[in-house]
Structures are given as C-alpha cells and as structure tokens.
C-alpha cells in the first residue's frame, strides 16, 4: 500500500490538534500543514513535534491584513527551517484583506526567495490569476502547487504551461465548476484536503477521511490508480 499524501491541511484550525496530529502520523499520511504567517509557523513548530509524515509550511497569507515588513524579514530568516511554504498567494476577493499593492509586493518577495531556495510552495489565488501568473513568469520557480484553483480555463492552461501542479479536494470535484478540472494533465495532479474547509461524503474533513477523499476524487477522474499517480507526482515535484 502506498502512503497517501495531503499537500494542504490546516492543523492549527482544529481544537483537538494533538489528537489530529497523532492520527496523521499513525496513518502514515504525508501531510503538509500550512500556516498563515511566520509567527504561527513558529508557534506550531514549538507546540507540535514534526514527524516523517507531518511537516509544517511557513506561510504568508494575503488575507492576513496585519502582516507587515517585519514579518517578511521573519519569513526570510525562518525559511531555512522547512522545505515547504504556504499558504501564500494573492486574494482580491475582499476589501478587508491586505491591500492589493502590499499583496503584490509581499508575494513577489516570497516567490523570489522560494525560487532561489527551491522551496515547495502551496499557493492560494482568488480573483488574482493574471497577477499571480505575471509573478510566476518573472521568477520561474520549479516547485509550485496551485491550491483550490477557481479561475478560468485560459489561466489554468497558462499555469500548466508554467509547470505548476494542482491540488484537488473533494469540494472542488463536487462543485458546479468541476468540469474544468478534467483538463488538467494527470501528471500534474496532487490531492489536498484543505481541512477543515472541506467535506468528505457530508462529513467535516479530518485525516481519518483522507482515504475516502481519495476515493471520491478517483471516481471523478475515473482513475483507479490515483494513489500511485499522486505519489509519483509528489516525488517528482520534490526532486526538481
Ligand atoms: Zn488553505
């Protein structure tokens, strides 16, 4: 049996996180636990021990309007502690988030650092696809996962052409816009839970449901080898 992989999970959003962390390691599910800021990343690392299966990513979320230049300095200083970066990105969907100019400046800086350090990024893009593409074109990072893509097909194709991978969750394949996800190349697919934001067969996501989530998505793609494909894809993106 191959290990299941979850490339985008919010462990710190669960009240019972010690138990959830234990489940992840007991189930031997490789899990990238994203955070929203360098501060949260450090707290998580202090409170929860990482294992072979559970890793924390250092984040810089565009929705966190309180993040500022000193957080970018922390980000630059702390990035050596992990191979994984997220959640980062651009989000123009609400006025209450970080302002657009600041988002653009910080996201450029983060992508610049990650490209030169060759870190794996899990990226959130909401109503900002063109700007995200411009920045990715500029720095040409090797290890990019677009998480919960909601943009149009033309921009999705541009991101594929840039070498990006895409992480798919159960809510995406159950949405009205799901048809476009069939256009993604099989060798670029990864699986994310984005727990606690998703449901698997009407149940709030927990790591004990990752296997069921894979089944739902395998059915959508009509691909009985999804577990193996995702394993191979993840191995490949880590090696580039
Ligand atoms: Zn997320």
Overview of this protein structure:
- The protein is of the alpha/beta class.
- The chain has one domain: Metal-dependent hydrolases (TIM Barrel, Alpha-Beta Barrel).
- Helix content is 40%, strand content 19%.
- The protein contains nine helices and eleven strands.
- Helix 3 packs parallel to helix 4.
- The site of zinc ion (ZN) has 5 residues, from loops.
- Zinc ion binds next to loops.
Strand-helix topology:
Elements: E1 5-9, H1 17-26, E2 30-33, H2 38-47, E3 54-56, E4 58-60, H3 69-78, E5 84-91, H4 100-117, E6 120-126, H5 129-139, E7 144-147, H6 153-161, E8 165-168, H7 170-173, E9 189-191, E10 199-200, E11 203-204, H8 210-220, H9 226-239
Parallel strand pairs: 1-2, 2-3, 4-5, 5-6, 6-7, 7-8, 8-9
Antiparallel strand pairs: 10-11
The structure holds zinc ion (ZN).
Brief descriptors of the model:
9 helices; 240 residues; three-stranded parallel sheet; binds zinc ion; 40% helix; TIM Barrel
């Amino acid at each position: 049996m191959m290990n299941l992989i979850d490339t985008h999970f919010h462990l710190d959003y669960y009240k019972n996180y010690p138990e959830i962390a234990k489940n992840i390691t007991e189930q031997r599910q490789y899990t990238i636990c994203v955070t929203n800021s360098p501060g949260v990343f450090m707290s998580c690392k202090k409170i929860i021990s990482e294992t072979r299966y559970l890793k924390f990513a250092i984040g810089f979320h565009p929705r966190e309007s309180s993040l500022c230049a000193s957080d970018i300095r922390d980000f630059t200083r702390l990035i050596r502690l992990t191979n994984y970066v997220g959640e980062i990105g651009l989000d123009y969907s609400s006025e209450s988030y970080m302002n657009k100019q600041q988002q653009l400046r910080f996201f450029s800086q983060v992508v610049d650092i990650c490209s030169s350090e060759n870190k794996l990024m899990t990226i959130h893009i909401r109503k900002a696809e063109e700007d995200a593409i411009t920045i990715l074109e500029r720095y040409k990072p090797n290890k990019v996962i677009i998480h919960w893509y909601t943009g149009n097909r033309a921009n999705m194709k541009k991101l594929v052409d840039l070498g990006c991978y895409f992480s798919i969750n159960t809510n995406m394949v159950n949405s009205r816009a799901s048809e476009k996800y069939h256009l993604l190349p099989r060798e670029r697919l990864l699986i994310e839970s984005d727990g606690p934001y998703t449901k698997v067969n009407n149940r709030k996501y927990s790591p004990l449901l990752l296997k069921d989530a894979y089944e739902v998505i395998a059915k959508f793609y009509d691909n009985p080898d999804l577990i193996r494909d995702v394993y191979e894809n993840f191995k490949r993106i880590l090696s580039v």
